[in-house]
Structure formats: structure tokens, C-alpha cells
């Protein structure tokens, strides 16, 4: 069956739905094609089931991209307060957790329910369980599914990134970009746990479950948050954040005791020995991590010089991870459709009029804390207002 619309949106996730809603509200006839049996599956699993749907302190510096200026325009024209006004219009209870991160009080279902209501009210048609076989372009775009042929002058690709294949992530968006000759910035897992090499794993990973507040740094970037030891290496917010800036071969520097001093207590003690040092470390770090750290870094002597070195090591533990835990565990995919190919105002391809890319498939990746959804909403709105 041939179905004709003003715009066809591929992918019923965060970006695709917001885009379709904005366009529908402006009277466009819009279809959303979604291969899953419901919309917004990633929204449902986000934020531990409570969806960290935006961040009040959203700035361009919270995003990675080969072009750090690209996201500015869309982010300025659809702000966290714009999305929040939608949340409040639907009377969804929410709270600020830390650092401007807004979460649902009850469940991420509130956000998917809100988007579904808005979609229906905007007259946007939804086609679920719709596998796309091919995309063609003659005078207009033609999307072939198993049973139907969708035609529209505008095609919006909102199929997300490669993270979490088990809930249906696909490389489809990148394939469409390549098909139309658009450049792609190499993709990689981001916001992902880091895997340590065999030696460090043997040293630390039996402490899986132990966590501490640290500063994790790679190059010029650093994050002060919790670190968690896992069976394979390191995770927790500080590590997820720094993983987005890490690449193979680079070290990650970890300050295990930010703004704390370990060795003054040892220097002032009657006896300088391992027991005093253990007590000093345990005052700052979880007991098991403190003991293990000391076992592995016990000074040769208890001289002032050796204590200075111990202090330096605690604040500058450098590990060289061998990998991330990959797309299976990564919250997002960094890289994607090269922003040089797109208008920063509308997300439309510069080469192929009528072809838009929004959300995670684009080379714009947010830090942890609600920024990725804010990019999905903002880029979706930018395109939706231009269709
Ligand atoms: C575990 C986890 C927790 C997260 N928590 C947060 C959080 O709390 N806050 C935050 O800001 N970000 C979070 N994120 C990141 C956030 O979910 C994504 O950045 C965001 O969903 C991207 O939106 P999108 O619309 O571009 O892609 P998606 O939401 O992934 O939507 C893409 C849609 O396209 C569909 N699709 C894919 N291929 C096809 C195809 N060939 N044909 C038709 N449909 C297709 C998919 O089924 C999907 O519905 C989290 C991610 C994960 C994995």
C-alpha cells in the first residue's frame, strides 16, 4: 500500500517523537516508523527507570563533537525549561537529584506516556513493528517496509546510536547517511565502564562493589564523582564520564582522595608504620580499598620523602584501561553523522534537501546527567520546526 505524508520520521525514540510532535502541531502530516513494538524503549530504561530527562545547567561544554559549536543553536532554541514546561503541563512529578539533573519521581513511563499523548494530539501517525527494507529518493523520499511504501518530501532519520543492541539499537541511521554520501565521524562507545588489563584486574577486581568519590581525569577533562570497582575494571559516574574522553592507549588519572591529605597524620604519629598508614588511608577511603592500596604501595621506608611520594600516588593513581565494556554497556554512541553535513539550525543535510538527522545518530554526545535527552529534544525540535 502506498502511503503519502509531508514527512516520515524513522525511529520513535526521544528525538523522533519530539520532532514529529513539533511538526504535527504545525499542521504537517507526519508518520513515525518504529521497528519495535512500542515507542521510547530507551527512555524506559533510562536513569535507572526514572529517566533523567534533562539538566537545568545545560551548556554547549557538556557535549562532545568534532565541531563543539554545532549544538549551540539547537540547544539555545529548545532549552531544558521548554521540556520542563511540557512535563509540568502533564503534571508529571519530578525532582532535582544533583547538579541540575531532573528525574521523574515515579517512573520513566510518565515521559513515554506524555510523548504518546502529545503525538496523538498532534495527529502524528505511528507505525510500530515496522522494519525498513530500503530508502530511495527520486522526486521525493520513498521508504519501503515489508508491506507498505511511505512517500514524503521530507525524511527524518532518528534511529539512534549503537548502544544496547539487545533493545534494538541498529546501525541503520549511519547506513542511510552513507547511502546519501554523507560523512560519518568514527563511532565509539561512550559513557561506558572501563576494562582493566589482567595485572590491574588481579590487583583490584576482587573488590568489586567498592566505591569512592574520586576525581577521574584524562587529558584536560576531569570529573569529580563516584567511582565503582567492577569485576572487569572500573565504573560509576566518574568513570562513565571520563570514558567518553578516553581512547585506547591513554591513561586515566584518578585522585582517590580529592582535597584530602593522607600523610599529615602519619607524619605526626608517634610511630610511623603500616598500621598508622592504614588508619590514615581508611579515614578517607573504604576500608578494603585502603588496605589493598597500601599493600600494593607500601613505602620502602617511612621517611618524609617516601610519605610525599605516597601522597602523590594516592592523588595520581594512573591506570591504562585496555578497553571499554563496549556498546552492550555504553549509555551512548559518540561520533556519528558529521555535523559539517548538517545545518545547525534545522539539522537538514546540506547536500540532500529534505533529509534530516537528529538525536544520537548525529556526532553530538552529551555528558552524563540528562544532557543526551536534552540533545534529543533540542535537535528534534529544531528539525520539527523546520519541516
Ligand atoms: C541504560 C541507558 C540509560 C540512559 N539514561 C539516560 C538518562 O537518564 N538521561 C539521558 O539524558 N540519557 C540517557 N541515556 C541516553 C539516551 O537514552 C539516548 O541518548 C537517547 O535515547 C537518544 O535518543 P534518540 O531518539 O536519538 O535514539 P533512541 O532513543 O535510541 O531512539 C531510536 C529509535 O529508533 C528505533 N530504530 C532503530 N533502528 C530502526 C530502524 N531501522 N527502523 C525503525 N526504527 C528504528 C529504535 O527502536 C528506537 O526506538 C541512557 C541510555 C542508556 C542505554
Structural class: alpha+beta
What value does the Rg take, in angstroms? 24 Å
Mean pLDDT score, rounded? 96
Tally of DSSP helical segments: 13
Ranges with pLDDT <50 over ≥5 residues?
A: none
Bound molecules: flavin-adenine dinucleotide
State the total count of DSSP E strands.
Answer: 23
Helical fraction: 25-40%
Q: Please state the oligomeric state of the protein chains shown.
A: single chain
The largest pleated sheet is described as: 7 strands, antiparallel
Spatial shape: elongated
**Distance between the first and last residues' Cα:** 24 Å
Strand order of the largest sheet: 19-18-15-16-17-14-20
How much of the residues is beta strand, in percent? 15-25%
Q: Any chance you could write out the topology, listing elements then pairs?
A:
Blueprint: E1 2-4, E2 7-10, H1 14-25, E3 30-33, H2 41-45, E4 52-55, E5 63-64, H3 72-77, H4 80-89, E6 94-96, E7 101-104, H5 109-121, E8 125-127, E9 132-137, E10 141-145, E11 149-152, E12 154-157, H6 172-179, E13 184-190, E14 194-195, H7 198-204, E15 211-218, E16 221-229, E17 233-235, H8 237-243, E18 252-255, H9 263-268, H10 274-282, H11 287-297, H12 304-315, E19 317-319, E20 323-324, E21 332-337, E22 355-357, E23 365-366, H13 371-384
Parallel strand pairs: 1-11, 2-3, 2-12, 3-8, 12-22
Antiparallel strand pairs: 4-7, 5-23, 6-7, 9-10, 10-11, 13-21, 14-17, 14-20, 15-16, 15-18, 16-17, 18-19
Helix pairs in contact: 1-5, 1-13, 10-11
The protein binds flavin-adenine dinucleotide.
Amino acid at each position: 500500500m502506498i502511503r503519502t505524508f509531508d514527512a516520515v520520521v524513522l525511529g520513535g525514540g526521544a528525538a523522533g517523537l519530539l520532532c514529529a510532535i513539533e511538526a504535527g502541531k504545525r499542521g504537517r502530516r507526519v508518520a513515525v516508523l518504529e521497528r519495535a513494538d512500542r515507542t521510547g524503549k530507551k527512555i524506559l530504561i533510562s536513569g535507572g527507570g526514572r529517566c533523567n530527562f534533562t539538566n537545568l545547567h545545560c551548556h554547549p561544554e557538556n557535549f562532545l563533537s568534532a565541531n563543539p559549536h554545532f549544538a549551540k543553536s539547537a540547544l539555545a532554541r529548545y532549552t531544558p525549561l521548554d521540556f520542563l514546561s511540557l512535563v509540568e503541563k502533564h503534571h508529571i512529578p519530578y525532582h532535582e537529584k544533583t547538579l541540575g539533573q531532573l528525574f521523574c519521581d515515579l517512573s520513566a513511563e510518565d515521559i513515554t506516556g506524555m510523548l504518546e499523548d502529545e503525538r496523538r494530539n498532534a495527529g502524528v501517525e505511528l507505525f510500530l513493528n515496522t522494519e525498513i527494507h530500503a530508502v530511495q529518493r527520486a522526486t521525493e523520499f520513498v521508504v519501503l517496509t515489508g508491506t507498505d511504501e511511505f512517500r514524503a518530501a521530507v525524511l527524518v532519520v532518528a534511529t539512534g546510536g549503537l548502544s544496547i543492541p539487545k533493545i534494538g539499537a541498529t546501525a541503520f541511521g549511519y547506513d542511510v547517511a552513507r547511502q546519501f554520501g554523507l560523512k560519518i565521524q568514527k563511532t565509539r562507545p561512550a559513557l561506558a565502564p572501563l576494562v582493566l588489563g589482567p595485572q590491574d584486574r588481579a590487583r583490584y577486581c576482587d573488590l568489586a562493589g567498592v566505591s569512592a568519590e574520586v576525581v577521574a581525569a584524562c587529558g584536560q577533562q576531569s570529573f569529580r564523582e563516584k567511582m565503582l570497582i567492577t569485576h572487569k575494571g572500573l565504573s560509576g559516574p566518574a568513570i562513565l564520564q571520563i570514558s567518553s574522553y578516553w581512547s585506547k592507549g591513554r591513561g586515566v588519572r584518578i585522585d582517590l582522595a580529592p582535597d584530602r591529605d593522607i600523610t599529615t597524620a602519619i607524619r605526626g604519629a608517634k610511630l610511623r608504620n603500616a598500621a598508622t598508614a592504614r588508619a590514615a588511608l581508611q579515614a578517607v577511603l573504604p576500608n578494603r580499598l585502603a588496605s589493598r592500596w597500601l599493600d600494593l604501595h607500601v613505602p620502602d621506608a617511612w621517611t618524609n620523602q617516601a610519605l610525599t611520594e605516597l601522597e602523590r600516588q594516592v592523588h595520581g593513581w594512573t591506570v591504562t584501561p585496555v578497553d571499554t565494556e563496549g556498546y552492550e554497556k555504553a549509555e551512548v554512541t559518540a561520533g556519528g553523522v558529521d555535523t559539517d553535513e548538517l545545518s545547525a539550525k534545522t539539522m537538514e543535510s546540506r547536500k540532500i534537501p529534505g533529509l534530516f538527522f537528529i538525536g544520537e545518530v548525529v556526532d553530538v554526545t552529551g555528558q552524563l546527567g540528562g544532557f543526551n535527552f536534552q540533545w534529543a529534544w533540542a535537535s528534534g525540535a529544531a528539525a520539527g520546526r523546520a519541516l
